[in-house]
Amino acid sequence: MPMLPDMVLWQTLLGACKTYKNVDMAEMVTRKLVEMGSTSDGNFVLLSNIYAAHERWADVGRIRDVMKSKDVRKTPGFSYIEEKGVIHKFYNADKIYGKLEEIRFKMKEFGYAAETSFVLHDIGDEEKENALYQHSEKLAVAFGLICAEDEARPIQVIKNLRICGDCHVVIKLISKMYNREIIVRDRVRFHRFKDGTCSCRDYW
């Protein structure tokens, strides 16, 4: 590289480690970020996600202990959407049962299977699948489908954290099933979902 990598470049590499499930490099990158003085909860959460994807639950627990010792607290995930001048805010596990069940049923007809590797807890597959359906960005999009009177207007959602892989797959499917354009602004970038694809081309 023609310049020394800064914290943002190291964090980008850590995100790539999650995409490619490279545990060894993720550990090295996290150590480097700690040495550089980073206290971002996102770095620890990403490494924990990578361990969870490999079912290394002891390491997931160790990361939680490290976060406690450094007083690093995980930011709770939430999403919000504006409808008719009113901002509606959703946290994980808020409930919009009817629309979510309709979406869930339709997605299975399209061959969807939940990406349970994105759930960080050592629980059964059914519980993981239920946890995924309660992510805040899914709730906000479902609410947008309920309220939207003008189907030509995009559904716009803002997410305070990085969108998870399963939610990314689900919102692509929703854009196709309901023939709707959906724009999600997460902590990293804008995602424009239309006709079952995303503007990020599945790299974010």
From TrEMBL:
<dbReference type="InterPro" id="IPR046960">
    <property type="entry name" value="PPR_At4g14850-like_plant"/>
</dbReference>
<dbReference type="GO" id="GO:0008270">
    <property type="term" value="F:zinc ion binding"/>
</dbReference>
<dbReference type="Pfam" id="PF20431">
    <property type="entry name" value="E_motif"/>
</dbReference>
<dbReference type="InterPro" id="IPR046848">
    <property type="entry name" value="E_motif"/>
</dbReference>
<comment type="similarity">
    <text>Belongs to the PPR family. PCMP-H subfamily.</text>
</comment>
<dbReference type="Pfam" id="PF14432">
    <property type="entry name" value="DYW_deaminase"/>
</dbReference>
<dbReference type="InterPro" id="IPR032867">
    <property type="entry name" value="DYW_dom"/>
</dbReference>
<protein>
    <recommendedName>
        <fullName>DYW domain-containing protein</fullName>
    </recommendedName>
</protein>
<dbReference type="GO" id="GO:0003723">
    <property type="term" value="F:RNA binding"/>
</dbReference>
<dbReference type="GO" id="GO:0009451">
    <property type="term" value="P:RNA modification"/>
</dbReference>
<feature type="domain" description="DYW">
    <location>
        <begin position="111"/>
        <end position="204"/>
    </location>
</feature>
